[in-house]
Amino acid sequence: MKIKKILIPYDATPSSKKAVKKVFPLIEKHNSKIIFLSCIHDKATFGFFKTKSDKKEIEQERKKIQKYHEELKKEAEGFDIPSSSKIIKSDLESRSIIEYSKEQNIDLIVMSKSKLGTHAEKMYYNSTVDAVFKNAPCPLLYIP
Q1: What CA–CA distance (Å, rounded) separates 33 from 84?
Q2: First CA to last CA distance, the chain
Q3: Region of 61 on the Ramachandran plot (φ > 0 left; ψ -120 to 50 alpha; else beta)
Q4: Among the residues of the chain, which ranges form H helices?
């Protein structure tokens, strides 16, 4: 199986940064392309409509993520790895990752779980990795 397209969901957490760092040396030997995908959580404040502050926050988040993506692309260039990035709005990140993987014919997804403090954080973030693992249209490489 030839791995041509690798998707790395990236949320700028230490675990997603670790996943990127560990996978670069593996990829450079296989002539693969990396796609960095970030999901901006898109949820209305009151559940019915989006306020101006909601839209402003989303735009600020988009700009921040674009900077991260530019840094990641430069780092990939250092390993001579072609890369691109995509930022999407999402109400459920795991579903968006799976749909994007199908649309783009991704050959491998690389993810890592966050080491978060509260029980609620662990349930939410771990469920994203678990849902992608269970429903991904391609293999998933888990970086512990």
Answers
A1: 8
A2: 24
A3: alpha
A4: 14-27, 52-78, 93-103, 119-135
Q: What is the dihedral angle through the alpha carbons of 125, 131, 137, 143, rounded to the nearest 10 degrees?
A: 40
- Residue pLDDT tens, the chain, 144 long: 688 899 999 888 877 888 888 888 777 667 889 999 998 877 655 555 555 566 788 888 899 999 999 999 999 998 889 999 999 988 888 899 999 999 999 999 998 876 554 454 455 555 788 888 888 999 998 887
Helix, strand, coil abundance in the chain, percent, nearest 5: 50, 20, 30
AA identity, residue 64: K
- pTM beyond 0.85: no
